Amino acid sequence: MILKDFLATTKDKQVEYILSLETKKQRDDYLNNVKKKNKIVAMKIAGAIQSQSNIDSSIKTKIIDSKDIDSFSEETILLSKLKANPYQPRKIFDKAKIEVLADSIKEDGLLQNILVAKNNNEYIIIAGERRFRAFQLLEKEDKRFSKIPVKIIDNVKENDFKIKSVIENVTREDMNIVETANAYKNLKDLGMTLEDIKKSTGSSTSLTSRLLKITKLNSEVQNKIIELDIKSSNLIEQIARLDDKKIQIKLLIEIKNGLKISQLKSRVDKMMESTIDKQILNEKTTKSKLEDVNLIHKNISKQYKKLSPEGKIEADKLLKEIQSIQEKILILK
């Protein structure tokens, strides 16, 4: 659409057009062009889009065009018929942001329908749980919001539905890095290869690999990442090289306070070297202990024939104890 026609149309049409552009870069570039002509219009459109949706249109198209989908329709249904998605990767919903979104919907209306899958007489949300929650808030004050416009996909296979649910949400920008990482792991668990994940989410192979490493961290460490709002997968990747969760958490706090990637890598390298040195020292100590015990066993065995019957009884007890010690040392080794 040429800029002149765009500025002459309604706000709803303007938002709809911006959302129809395939990539975030295209949307940003177009908004920048609008801003050069009319800053106020550009700010209002950007605010409406940010409040209500950051859906990647290319992902939405993939959902709609899938050969596994028999039909696609639009309806207005009761909120009570909608069910939250059990495969929703986003676990934290900011109450204040939901309230802002509710105010935006109250003022401008719903700019983009919720995407749902129909299962018997229930409608499960694929995309739009924040909008759904905003409607629930509004319904408490105004029963006009007891119904919500939805786009319905019929007859979606369960595995296909799971994948679509995760991909649709993971392409948004308002998920924390741990939620994103766990979403990538869900895709992997659902049978997608790293290459599939890369293509579906638009991420690089290296980013996908780093995010999957985050899922292997202790839950306390993951919670600390969320609490401190650490966003860099490069920094967290360095933390993941260590095993001690107390050290990991300590380093996360230092990252929050300004620790740079080069400083962190140097620190972790030194810790790793120290750990390897300790392992080598432990192996040498264990080997030395085993050699000492073996020597004692050998000396007792040499003198065994010369011992008296009473001495042999004591020697047998001692040899049993030595054998037990040898087994313990071998386990440590």
Question: Explain this structure to me?
Answer:
By secondary structure, the protein is α/β, with parallel strands linked by helices. The protein is built from 16 helices and five strands. The chain has helices at 3-8, 11-20, 24-37, 39-52, 57-65, 95-108, 129-141, 158-170, 177-189, 194-201, 205-214, 219-228, 233-240, 245-256, 261-303, 309-332, and strands spanning 72-78, 82-83, 114-119, 122-127, 147-154. Strands 1-5-3-4-2 form a five-stranded mixed sheet. Helix 9 (177-189) packs across helix 11 (205-214), helix 11 crosses helix 13 (233-240) and helix 13 (233-240) runs antiparallel to helix 14. It is elongated.
Q: Main attributes?
A:
333 residues; alpha/beta; 16 helices; elongated
SSE-based structural type: alpha/beta
The total beta strand count reads: 5
Number of helices: 16
Instruction: Report helical residue fraction.
Output: 55-70%
- Uncertain residue segments: 51-70
Mean pLDDT: 76
What is the makeup of the main sheet?
A: 5 strands, mixed
Shape designation: elongated
Report the order of strands and helices: HHHHHEEHEEHEHHHHHHHHH
Calculate the terminal CA-CA distance, rounded to whole Å.
72 Å
Radius of gyration: 31 Å
Strand order of the largest sheet: 1-5-3-4-2
Strand content: 5-15%
